[in-house]
Amino acid sequence: MRLLLLFILSLNLLYSQKIALLIGNNEYSFAPLNNSLHDVDGIYNTLKEIGFKDSNIKVLKNISKDAMKKALLSFEDQASSSEIALIYFSGHSIQVNNINYVFPANTIVRKQRDLQDLINLDDFIKSATSAKSGIVLIDASRKNPLIKHFQNEKYNKVSSPRGLNQISPKEDQILIGFSKSEGDISEDGNVKMSSYSKALSERLKENHDIHRVLRKVQQDVMRNHEQYPTIFSTLNFTVCLTGSCIPKEVVKPKVVVTPKEVIEPKVVVVAPKEVIEPKVVEVVPKEVIEPKIVEVVPKEVIEPKVVEVVAKEVIEEKVVEVIPEVIPEVIHEVIRKYALTINPIPSSAKVYIMNIQPSYKDGIKLKEGKYTIKVKLDGYKSKVESIYLKSNLEKDISLSKIIKKIVEPTPIVRYALTINPIPSHAKVSITNIKFRYKDGIKLEEGRYTIKVKLSGYKTKIQKVYLKNNLEKDITLSKIVSRKNDQSSDTSSLVNKEIDTITNAKKTVSKKKTLTFKGVTYTGEEKNSLAHGKGRLLWDNGNSYTGDFVESKRTGRGTLRWANGNKYIGDFINDKRTGKGSLFLANGAKYIGSFVNGKRTGKGTYTWRNGDRYIGDFVNDRQTGMGTYIWASGKQRKGLWKNGLPID
Known about the structure:
- This is MORN repeat protein.
- By secondary structure, the chain is α+β, with helices and mostly antiparallel strands.
- The protein has five domains: about 10-235, Rossmann fold, CATH 3.40.50; about 255-330, no CATH class; about 335-400, Sandwich (Immunoglobulin-like); about 415-510, Immunoglobulin-like; about 515-645, Histone H3 K4-specific methyltransferase SET7/9 N-terminal domain, CATH 2.20.110.10.
- Helix content is about 15%, strand content about 35%.
- A hairpin with a 5-residue loop joins strand 34 and strand 35 (about 635-640).
- Helix 2 runs parallel beside helix 6, helix 3 packs parallel to helix 4 (about 120-130) and helix 6 (about 195-205) runs antiparallel to helix 7.
- It is elongated.
- Mean pLDDT is about 80; it is low at about 5-15, about 155-160, about 250-275, about 280-290, about 290-335, about 485-500 and about 500-510.
């Protein structure tokens, strides 16, 4: 009989009264909203669909402070006899001195004394906690232009000028949900419903505990928008707005036989080979005895099930413990948060918590769990530590100073070259450099072409390899000419000298076509090597036009790929190194620094949809400090690693 009463009691709980108060305000002279009334309509339709009676749902739109106060008091009275009380608000909000307020319609506040015209969020919480389970959902973290008036008051300090302040509910059995995280805001878009209310209206239809429903709402909103909904809860039992929850798992029946001693049974339902109702447990020993009646009082209210137990042997008056086939899901989710303070040494170092979205601040409130702390400061080695937070924690993290080794650049060694022409008034020039010759000229190690000339003497050209200081004599031979042919010989000498100069220049700048395996070069050459200006064409259709040094692309040039990509910029030893611009065939482009053919250093990458990233790159990935700017104008500035934000 007692089991039957408990079963009836569980049915009463399942279908107990559920009430809701939905408030939407969009008429604000300082900043009208687009979504609020659509948000309320969407939540209203969902509540009706999941079993809320129409008479138990009160919808209020664009109401004044007095009307809102009256509605909250009436709802508090009604909630005192209800199983579930839900309040939903969509509109403007503000936080002043860590106190959260919501705006009635057509309300303006400019000074601290005007706050009396607003509704304290605590009034919402108080009304909902009259029920067995209270739920308060606030979609009001929108940009509020009135904040600037409070910032201008000298005597008033606004602790966080954006969004709502984090709260820790003091009341039991209450759940509070915000559409954004502490100190953050969401934009009021042009679509009918806000991203938070749209996800909420869909997820409330699922047969899950309210905590699980709101966690799914978090995931939906984070996946499609730049906001992070938060949950604060002291509910310690399952709350399903649809009336029933889907269990987490099914556990197979388990039989425990204890022949020597009687243990306290949780649920005892014994049946012979045929299924009988779980009222009487009849134990038949080897000898016929009077049947005994065992009265069972379960510790928890569960849905009774009939479980067939077939013992292998008949034993005397034993206690059989049977674990039911389905264990109902009970979520004891009391969200406790602990204060975390990191004391960096030096104190000017910056602290990051790398595996959460909110920025670190001293005393930040976090749930129990593992967190990765990063401390960095210019001139010091960055330190990354993992901590497990299960109570309030204050921790010192010291950084080690970087001792920079002064690496002096390898000096460019130059050697002195002096040519002593004979006769001494002959003119000396070095034909393969652009500098004018003078005695003791400083040159790097290498091969140089020396030309010595004087009228009436045979011009002489010699090559020298300079690898240390060198002083060299070069003697010219005098030209002996016949008297009769003096004019002719002089003309011949001039022509010969001109040919000599021309041939000397050709050794450096003669244009040729050189063919290698799969590559054709056309341009200036030196010693059968591409040297100077030229063009390189591959058989696959790629091409390069620009500077060469000893058959390597070095200097400035343009590289075109057959697929339509193009690079214009600096090269060193056949690699894109230095400043350059890369234009991709898909419409994207990068302008900035390259090292060994990869985007490394400062640069700007622009996608074809208009999004762009400005900052540091390492090996073609965004790594370091940078700013991502969406085509809409929104920005995200911070640290990046391997193409992803890390703070």
